[in-house]
Design brief:
Phosphorylase Kinase, domain 1, flat, six-stranded antiparallel β-barrel, alpha+beta, 4 domains, 28% helix, 16 helices, Thrombin, subunit H
Length: 590
């Protein structure tokens, strides 16, 4: 059969997602014309598209035209491997990522001089071979990451054999690798007072040593092989290289840490500084919130863990670090109180007061719409909190129902200060923002200020009353275009008996032009007061009263520590009813 060499006539099919292949450089580990510093005997490549006569490879390695080599292709549809001899015909740089090359190869007739490697009997294999790939693609690491990350990960894995009884990881040592168990079992042990206590067992498919890529700190336990084992190791330095090129891999770090915090095993890594994580409270697009407790004082807290894709964004991190002190110093009854901010495990933890209740977003889901009087009461509290924050030089940036928490007594608190756009920001780093609540100036990349919060407040008011946002298109791009081209619909058309004051309030807060909105949260609050009086609602025209601080030092003997903890817990419960914020600090023994 004659091979077709005119590539323009090949019937090509775009592969989405791309197929995967293994390029073999020969039995001796070297083929002239394949340029790498240390040429591997095999490495994984992405197959971008395929025809009857050839395929395009994507790889970091350079291959000169007319070089012949073996290629093993995995078909995700047929779930099988095909071994093919190929010849490179052309090479170009990938315009989307200049670090990669695109190699066009033709399928060749089998060459008797080029022997097919005995793949499954390969000794000292450096990367996973087809039989290993079948296993790895179903592990949690590969299931949880984007398909584009598969080849870099596979090329970075190192095979390791462990004998039964051998120690894989040593407590107190600095481990530099995460391991996937392909065969065998191991025991996790904690050493205390020169005695070993088993605390867990890991089997095929499990991960061990994951703290190596989460924190550069000594290992908290021993891991010993129970049986002969085969492992695939990924070094932290290799992981960091891949995550720099593929930021989507950051999500895997969040999954690892979330699993550790939800584990029932008593591990030291479940502590964030002075605070021990206990239960999961909620899971959102930017963070996971846990219930925690002050390990020494027994004071309950909420621990918000920022997802790694946001926390590892340098622009966000620098901005948040600059505002951390201001966030912790915000002190208003309508703003959630932040006690501490910790940087650990390659992310941020915000330690806050623990509240009982639900968000306005949850209320809308349950009630469909919120009554006019209750909406007015909520708006007054939100405005009051924004007046205070704006006076401190801070804007929120992502006011929306899911960031507004209602306590069981009806009191409202604004969440997530510091996770939005900073005052006067002109960049388009919109991490955490929800398109439906973004003002036109934020969408277009212009300066945002207090009036941007006022716009989001108006959209939130519209949603509370109607049960939906003004521009509810499913397509995010369309949703972001609508505020630039259209005014917010008149809510009176959907809400019978809507008071004229509230109607004007929504239309004014949601004006496309910031100059046509309320110029401050205080002026918006003043207009709401007129409506509030008709419903007998509490006035919020006056700023919150200045709070005082009392410092109390407790010097105690160690034998009284348990009784003191119980006393402090009772004291904390009583002070909370008085809206007193209690903070504790550890001091060195006297």
């Amino acid at each position: 059969m004659e091979i077709q060499h005119d590539r323009r006539r090949w019937l090509r099919e775009m592969l989405n997602p791309p197929e995967i292949g293994i390029l073999y450089t020969g039995n001796q580990g070297f083929i002239p014309g394949i340029h790498v510093t240390k040429q591997p005997t095999a490495f994984y490549v992405d197959l971008l598209n395929r025809s009857m006569g050839g395929v395009i490879l994507k790889t970091k390695w350079e291959i000169e035209p007319e070089i012949m080599f073996h290629l093993q292709i995995y078909s995700s549809l047929e779930e099988s491997w095909e071994f093919i001899q190929v010849r490179a015909k052309w090479t170009n740089k990938d315009t989307t990522n200049p670090e990669y090359n695109l190699i066009g190869v033709e399928f060749e007739a089998p060459d008797q001089m080029m022997e097919q490697p005995k793949l499954d009997q390969a000794q000292n294999k450096k990367i996973p071979l087809p039989c290993d790939y079948e296993f790895l693609r179903n592990t949690r690491l590969f299931k949880s990451v984007h398909r584009n990350v598969a080849c870099p990960l596979l090329n970075s894995l190192i095979h390791k054999k462990i004998k039964a009884g051998e120690r894989i990881i040593t407590q107190g040592a600095r481990n530099d690798s995460l391991y996937i168990i392909q065969q065998g079992a191991c025991i996790t042990k904690v050493e205390k007072h020169k005695k070993l206590y088993p605390v867990g067992r890991s089997l095929e498919g499990d991960l061990i040593g994951e703290m190596a890529i989460l924190a550069e700190k000594p290992q908290s336990d021993h891991i010993d092989a129970e049986t002969d084992m085969q492992l695939w190791g990924l070094k932290r330095v290799q992981f960091d290289k891949i995550v720099t090129e593929h930021p989507e891999l950051r999500n895997f770090l969040t999954e690892l840490l979330a699993e550790r915090f939800s584990s029932q095993r008593l591990l030291a890594e479940k502590r964030i500084g002075k605070y021990a994580v206990t239960d999961t409270i909620g899971d959102g697009p930017n963070s996971i919130v846990y219930k925690g407790i002050h390990a020494e004082l027994g004071i309950p807290v909420a621990v918000k863990m920022i997802r790694h894709d946001l926390a590892m964004d340098l622009d966000f991190l620098r901005g948040f670090q600059k505002e951390a002190n201001a966030i912790a110093n915000l002190n208003h009854k309508n703003i959630v109180k932040v006690y501490d901010i910790e940087e650990r495990f390659r992310t941020l933890f915000i330690i806050m007061e623990l509240m009982e209740g639900e968000t306005i977003g949850s209320l809308i889901k349950r009630w469909k719409t919120i009554p006019i009087a209750q909406t007015t009461a909520f708006l007054i509290q939100i405005c009051s909190g924004l007046v205070y924050a704006h006076q401190q030089g801070m804007i929120h940036g992502i006011i929306k129902p899911s960031n507004l928490f209602v306590n069981q007594d009806g009191g409202l608190k604004i969440l997530d200060f510091g996770l939005g756009i900073r005052h006067g920001a002109k960049d388009l780093n919109l991490s955490g923002a929800t398109a439906a609540y973004m003002p036109p100036e934020q969408i277009s990349g212009s300066t945002v200020d207090e009036r941007s919060d006022i716009y989001a407040l108006g959209i939130t008011a519209y949603e509370m009353l109607t049960g939906k946002t003004p521009f509810s298109e499913d397509n995010t791009r369309t949703k972001m275009d609508m505020p630039l081209e259209h005014n917010v619909p008149d809510p009176a058309g959907q809400v019978p008996n809507l008071p004229e004051i509230l109607r004007r309030f929504i239309l004014k807060t949601c004006a496309k032009n910031p100059d046509e909105r309320y110029q401050s949260a205080a002026s918006a609050l003043n207009d709401l007061q007129v409506l509030a009086k008709s419903y007998g609602l509490e006035s919020e025209t006056q700023p919150s009263k200045k709070r005082k601080m009392l410092t109390l030092f407790l010097l105690y003997n160690e034998e009284h520590q348990l009784e003191l903890k119980q006393l402090l817990e009772e004291f904390t419960n009583k002070t909370r009813k008085l809206r007193v914020d209690l903070k504790a600090a550890d001091f060195k023994d006297i």
